[in-house]
Amino acid sequence: MRLILEHVTKKFAETKAIDDVTIDVEASCIAVVGGNAAGKSTLLKLIATVLKPDEGRVLLNGIDVVRQAHLIRKDLSYLPEEPALLDTLTARENLLLFAKIKKASYNEALLSNLRFEPNGKKLVRNLSKGTRRKLSLSIALLGEPKILVLDEPTNGLDEDAKQAFWTQLSTLKEKNVAMIIATHDTEEIQRLADTVIILEKGRLVKTERLRSTTSHVQL
Ligand SMILES: Nc1ncnc2c1ncn2[C@@H]1O[C@H](COP(=O)(O)OP(=O)(O)OP(=O)(O)O)[C@@H](O)[C@H]1O
Ligand SMILES: [Mg+2]
């Protein structure tokens, strides 16, 4: 996957969440790191076509994510920082609904891989934070996306679920699924990421290559 940003700026009133960032990286797994308010979530939203830049262009595999958003959305799955779930439905009902929206098949194996068993009559609003997170991750993985954009995916997960999740991502990486992951879990991400993008107060500090990449994703 090739990710290019050309002088990208995104402002919220006076705050420059992303401030004149230029990047050109080729990697199958990109980590986005930086402290709180560095602009990680904003960068992921720009890539996932949730937000549009005020200035500059974002290109994913040569595709302009604003002008050809439909092509990006077809192959990309985005996990927001805060789970976006239907609170008055059960976990299974959420999964079935999102599978339908994504025209994806619902696969029980996907869930057991995350140590998540959505049986039960509890409504999503009554589930624990970690369980909601697992559900949200399961939804992001529905439909075999080619590119995963994940915002702090292991936030709130217990150790067992965290390990299961990173193992699952390694398997997906071997299957040529490309990933862009914002995380504070810097130890874990180093095992997976080929390139790290470091942000600070909306500015690019540097991009760092950890290993060479061999896989290619075509949109
Ligand atoms: N919708 C919004 N309205 C106003 N300001 C926003 C909005 N979204 C982000 N910001 C601001 O942009 C800056 C970057 O926020 P962002 O959420 O991208 O940071 P982050 O690196 O993801 O931080 P964290 O580690 O806390 O998740 C912050 O100053 C934040 O307050
Ligand atoms: Mg964030």
The helix/strand class is alpha/beta
Query: Quaternary arrangement of the chains shown?
Result: single chain
Average pLDDT, rounded to a whole number, is 90
Q: What ranges have pLDDT less than 50 throughout 5 or more consecutive residues? A: none
Largest sheet: 6 strands, mixed
Looking at the structure, what is the overall shape? globular
Task: Please tell me about this protein's structure.
With 219 residues, this protein is α/β, with parallel strands linked by helices. The protein has a domain at 2-84 and 148-209: P-loop containing nucleotide triphosphate hydrolases (Rossmann fold), CATH 3.40.50. The chain is 31% helix and 29% strand. It contains 7 helices and 10 strands. The protein has helices at residues 40-47, 69-75, 91-101, 108-113, 129-141, 159-174, 186-192; strands spanning 2-12, 15-26, 29-33, 55-60, 63-64, 76-79, 147-151, 178-182, 195-200, 203-209. Strands 6-7-8-3-9-10 form a 6-stranded mixed sheet, with helices on both faces. A hairpin with a 2-residue loop joins strand 9 (195-200) and strand 10. The radius of gyration is 17 Å and the shape is globular. The N and C termini lie close together (9 Å). The model has no long low-confidence stretch (mean pLDDT 90). Magnesium ion binds at residues 40-41, 81, 151.
Features:
219 residues, alpha/beta, six-stranded mixed sheet, 7 helices, 10 strands, 31% helix, globular, binds adenosine-5'-triphosphate, binds magnesium ion
